[in-house]
Specification:
heterodimer, A: 774 residues, alpha+beta, Aldehyde Oxidoreductase, domain 3, Aldehyde Oxidoreductase, domain 4, 3 domains, six-stranded mixed β-sheet, 27% helix, B: alpha+beta, Enolase-like, domain 1, four-stranded antiparallel β-sheet, 14 strands, globular, binds flavin-adenine dinucleotide
């Protein structure tokens, strides 16, 4: 246990700071071709003809691919659901002759160099018939709006409606009713490594795939489905790590199937690397507009809540069909106790880019609405916002509000509120707009009262994890798993869990570098705050098997019952007889040694029972998806002449069950704050209102906070409620860190200057306009 | 948009560089620190370029006094070296330079050059605004010919300068500031990697009664194709006692001096508002620097 909660060095750190040779973008395969996609300049159009003859004649061009050549099976590229999942919408083709957003690929070229491929796509002549466009989801829902897909009347892709109790009765019982519209915008995860892949098709039609992806098995399944081939024909190589994902690499892109088809055509490996501009139009957090109406008693008890959420999914439904549910259920319906609730979600097609996964998966949009409105209620009714939340919150030991059969075994919301408020100095908060001078300070906070550590209980979502751990004769262990390290430290925490469970020093456990879908058990993606919990459980189970086998062999060697033995720091210790200890290396060497061994008295047989590699294998789905909970307090300073907001300090309190890696956990909080603050104040993926084309070429156009804008003081408080179903008591951390900053900052801005901004991002211009200065 | 680069040269002399530039004409581009290249490339603005002429071997580095208090900054001096030079940092007249160098990221400061930031002729850059407020001039060389171009005449359009084909900037010269002069600079940006949404550089020269004998008010960022000299704001200051009232008048006047750009980064109304706030604030800082 001594390793748990410490901060051992990340095994991948050295490699990354010396160039990161294992990033997929750095992989090279002999003989590979380079491909480039030709993308439509129009947001809605029908392709009338494509003339590729000039491109084909260019020296160095090896193949051209056009929509008529791709398989006709529609699919959803989303990874963590089966290809035919009923809750998803199968509305995509690898390439289509109908264009639905500016930037959709309409042709591709593979050539001997990237430069030739770039030149070749400029030689392709495409004749388009432009179609009427719609960019606003509410306009798209109007009768008579341009229709994007035949199957979706009024462009609504999915329309979940859920609720309980009696809404009318609830509003009738309310002393006060609050209504507000809260809207959010499109932001990108800004993973540093671009989407990139190399696909190599052999002569038997077997595909080997390298890709910067968050999910090996998802890519295998989706690629096989889209290509209409058996899954065993696709082998996805696990790269040791990728350069960030944050949910932005949770679906197959256009590049993987296109590279696959070009490879099949040419018989050579084909590499496609996206530019930053292409990455910007590949995935984004969906804009969601939330109409939120809440009834409360005088004392602040909720009596009724009604929410309507309109999600702009862009040209295809993909993640939008799932994000809407997570948003509604975990963001609005179930966060607090309210007896009469109803929520309606609309995932709406528009001629905008396709949305994707992004850390938080619908909850940042909801949390902004819900936690802003709670602040408004407390302000108007003069209620203590901490007490208000406590009154309406769930408590440990209650049934899980969302997943039947589960209990909130560990749930330390009160402690988060209390310890966060104390550390922050919440009691010193002044009344709204009470500062003097041009720069005014304000304090605010927000909560994520219910979240997940994986997806058990969700329809159609995989929750498997697996691990193989094998001991070596030198006393080290190899750990193989399909869980991707997406930058958030999964290699480290999983090695740490294995080391702690077996009883090895941290440095003795190595993550296997190049497993692939043929060698490791099936796994869900690294998403949904699940890896430490779900993969951690699988690793712990495999490690337990290893330890048991290790002790069995040691028991034979020492002629003692295994229950008299323990493994500590690479040594087998005998209860009450420390001098008789063996090293793990000696035990493994013995297990792998020949049956007959030379001893002092000549050759003698050992036992058969002890022979063989000491190995543990697990493949399982966890028992639960326990709920973490978090609270974040921030202090801001607003320049009332320029509207510029600076965040001065942050205190974040989070119940994560058990802290596994302290530095890693703090990194999650700080990175989450950076993304959450960017969402709140500046990040915005913008599009030309007429042509629909993305205005961001690179990070000059897309602004995210740099180290300079970050508050100098971010404190993390980790509450250890000890989750009984988790590895060493752990549950999850990642996503609440990104969910709470926007409403906390919005609430602090209100406290500073007395104006409420309900539309993200809260730019200086909006602040000045709200102050009546613009 | 495909890149068409064919050649890369590292000439050892100005003469050689000029010859190469003349040979390739519009197909050649000078590279000093090279920090401008990526931004052009991703926006498809480099497709005509077939040869890069890297001038980093030409020396042209250092900062020196150019007689009676003026300063000469050689073209390949890095932005960081400018910021660290006592000749600049100790003189309140050059305060705007130190201010402008607060903004670029460290990597850019270490690599970007004085000549490059001026030659780029992008009104979104900061340091040139400060140079304009100080009445700086460009020294340019074409083969054996050397000429001086006042910065006021240097910026012709967006990415367009008064340099002739083959001409290379060798230095930026700042004349000796008049007594009782101070300058200041402010930039509105979204993050530390941003180019100006709007920037303001001012210089204030007071007479012995504390009245404004001379001033410069320069606007950059989203103000059009080139930097703008705000002559109405300068007129509002002339002969007035330097202080809140005259600074407010200058701030009010500045909106007549430029056509604010309206784009996805900011509205024109916001830029006009910020111009006023920043003119007032920079003038206040300059005055404070005069002690
Ligand atoms: C991420 C980033 C952030 C930035 N932030 C800021 C900022 O906050 N504030 C700011 O003001 N600027 C900023 N910049 C711009 C930066 O200051 C300029 O790019 C830099 O100063 C240019 O110098 P360079 O030596 O790198 O020029 P280069 O890139 O080498 O050249 C720039 C241009 O000038 C020409 N050129 C260069 N030297 C000469 C010469 N001696 N004679 C003739 N022509 C020449 C080149 O042909 C080219 O057209 C930023 C740039 C980047 C990439």
């Amino acid at each position: 246990m001594s390793l748990i909660g410490k901060s051992p060095e990340r095994p991948d750190a050295f490699d990354k700071v010396t160039g990161g040779k294992a990033f997929p973008v750095n992989v090279k395969v002999p003989g590979m071709l380079h491909a480039k996609l030709l993308r439509s300049p129009y947001p809605h159009a029908r392709i009338l003809s494509i003339d590729t003859s000039a491109a084909e004649k260019l020296a160095g061009v090896k193949a051209v691919l056009v929509p008529s050549e791709v398989p006709k099976r529609k699919f959803t590229p989303v990874y963590f659901v089966p290809a035919n999942a009923g809750s998803m919408v199968q509305d995509m083709l690898i390439m289509s002759d109908t264009v639905r957003f500016a930037g959709q690929p309409v042709a591709a070229v593979a050539a001997t160099s990237l430069r030739i491929a770039e030149q070749a796509i400029e030689l392709i002549e495409v004749e388009y018939e432009e179609l009427p466009t719609v960019f606003d989801p509410e306009e798209a829902m109007q009768p008579g709006a341009p229709q994007l897909h035949d199957h979706a009347t009024n462009n609504v892709a999915v329309n979940p409606v859920m609720g309980f109790g009696d809404l009318d009765k609830g509003f009738a019982e309310a002393d006060h009713i609050f209504e507000g519209v809260y809207s959010s915008h499109r932001v990108h995860t800004c993973y540093m490594e671009p989407r990139v892949c190399i696909v190599d098709c052999d002569r038997q039609g077997n595909f080997t795939v390298h890709s910067s992806t968050q999910h090996l098995f998802g890519l295998r399944e989706k690629l096989a489905f889209a290509l209409e081939i058996p899954e065993s024909k696709v082998r996805v190589i696990k790269s040791p790590y990728i350069g960030g994902g944050f949910g932005g690499k949770l679906d197959m892109g256009y590049i993987e199937p296109i590279a696959a088809l070009l490879s099949r055509k040419t018989g050579r490996p084909v590499r496609i690397e996206q530019t930053r501009h292409e990455d910007f139009i590949t995935t984004a957090r969906h804009p969601i507009k939330v109409y939120l109406k809440t009834g409360v008693k005088k004392d602040g008890t909720f009596t009724a809540r009604h929410a309507k959420s309109i999600l702009d999914t862009g040209a295809h439904a993909t993640h939008g069909a799932e994000v809407i549910n997570v948003h509604g259920v975990f963001g609005l319906l179930m966060t607090y106790r309210c007896p009469n609730s109803k929520w309606e979600g609309y995932t709406v097609y528009t001629n905008n880019m396709i949305g994707g996964g992004y850390r938080g998966y619908g909850s940042p949009q909801a949390c902004f609405a819900a936690e802003s409105q709670i602040d408004e209620i407390c302000e108007q009714l003069q209620l203590d916002p901490i007490e208000f939340r406590r009154k309406n919150a769930w408590h440990a030991g209650e049934p899980h509000p969302m997943v039947q059969g589960l209990t909130l075994d560990s749930y330390a919301f009160d402690e988060c509120l209390q310890s966060g408020a104390e550390r922050f100095g919440w009691s010193k908060r002044k009344k709204a707009d009470s500062g003097k001078g041009t720069k005014k300070r304000g304090m605010g906070f927000a909560c994520q009262p219910l979240w997940v550590s994986g997806c058990i209980g969700f329809p159609d979502i995989y929750e498997h994890s697996g691990a193989i751990i094998k001991l070596n004769p030198d006393g080290t262990a190899d750990l193989a798993t399909a869980t991707m390290d997406i930058g958030s430290g999964q290699i480290t925490t999983l090695c740490q869990i294995a080391a702690a469970e077996i009883g090895l020093p941290m440095e003795a456990v190595h993550m296997v570098q190049n497993s692939d879908t043929t060698t490791v058990p099936v796994d869900a993606p690294t998403h949904a705050s699940r890896a430490t919990y779900s993969s951690g459980n699988a690793v712990q189970a495999a490690a337990r098997t290893v330890r048991e086998r290790l002790l069995m062999v040691a028991g034979i060697m020492l002629d003692i019952s295994p229950d008299q033995l323990s493994v500590v720091d690479g040594k087998i210790l005998v209860k009450g007889a420390p001098k008789r200890s063996l090293s793990v290396a000696e035990v493994v060497t013995r297990a792998e040694s020949p049956f007959v061994q030379h001893g002092a008295n000549g050759p003698a047989p050992t036992t058969l029972e002890e022979k063989g590699t000491i190995i543990g294998v697990s493949s399982l789905a966890p028992k639960a998806n326990p709920s973490p909970v978090s609270v974040e307090f921030v202090e801001v300073e607003v320049d009332t002449e320029t509207g510029v907001v600076q965040v001065l300090r942050v205190v974040y309190a989070h119940d994560l069950g058990k802290l596994i890696h302290r530095n890693g956990a703090e990194g999650q909080v700080e990175g989450g704050f950076q993304q959450g603050m960017g969402y709140a104040l500046m990040e915005n993926l913008q599009f030309d209102p007429v042509s629909g084309s993305c205005l961001a070429a690179d990070f000059l156009d897309y602004k995210m906070p740099t180290a300079v804008e970050m508050p100098r003081d971010i404190q993390s408080i980790f509450i250890e409620s000890n989750e009984p179903s988790g590895p060493f008591g752990a549950k999850s951390l990642s996503e609440p860190c990104i969910t709470v900053p926007a409403p906390a900052i919005a609430n602090a801005i209100y406290n500073a200057i007395g104006v409420r901004i309900r539309e993200l991002p809260i730019t200086p211009e909006k602040i000045l306009a709200a102050l009546g200065k613009l | 948009m495909a890149l068409n680069l064919e050649d890369y040269f590292l000439p050892a002399s100005l003469q050689e560089a000029s010859t190469l530039l003349q040979r390739y004409g519009d197909g050649a581009m000078v590279v000093a620190g090279g920090t401008f290249v990526h931004g052009l490339e991703v926006r498809g603005l480099l497709t005509e370029t077939v040869a890069l002429v890297d001038i980093s071997r030409l020396g042209l580095r250092g900062i020196s006094e150019s007689g009676n208090g003026g300063v000469s900054l050689q073209a390949l001096t890095t932005l960081a070296e400018v910021g660290a030079a006592p000749l600049i940092s100790r003189n309140p007249a050059f305060g705007s330079i130190g201010d402008a160098l607060q903004y670029p990221p460290r990597q850019i400061l270490n690599v970007g050059t004085v000549g490059g930031c001026v030659a780029a002729a992008a009104p979104l850059y900061d340091l040139p605004a400060a140079f304009l407020a100080l009445d700086g001039q460009v020294q340019a060389s074409l083969a054996a010919r050397q000429r001086a171009i006042p910065l006021n005449d240097f910026f012709v359009g967006l990415f367009e300068s008064a340099l002739q084909r083959g001409e290379i900037i060798t230095a930026i010269e700042l004349p000796a500031p008049a007594a009782r002069s101070a300058s200041a600079f402010l930039k509105l940006e979204t993050n530390a990697n941003d180019l100006s949404i709007l920037n303001v550089a001012v210089r204030l020269t007071l007479d012995k009664d504390g009245k404004c004998a001379d001033s410069r008010v320069i606007l950059g960022g989203g103000v059009g194709e080139t930097y703008v000299r705000a002559t109405s704001a300068e007129a509002a200051l002339r002969g007035q006692t330097a202080g809140e009232a005259s600074f407010a008048a200058a701030a009010a006047a500045v909106v007549d001096d430029f056509e604010a750009v309206e784009d996805h980064r900011a509205s024109a109304a916001y830029r006009r508002h910020i111009a006023q706030v920043y003119v007032r604030r920079t003038l206040g800082t300059a005055l404070a620097r005069l002690g």
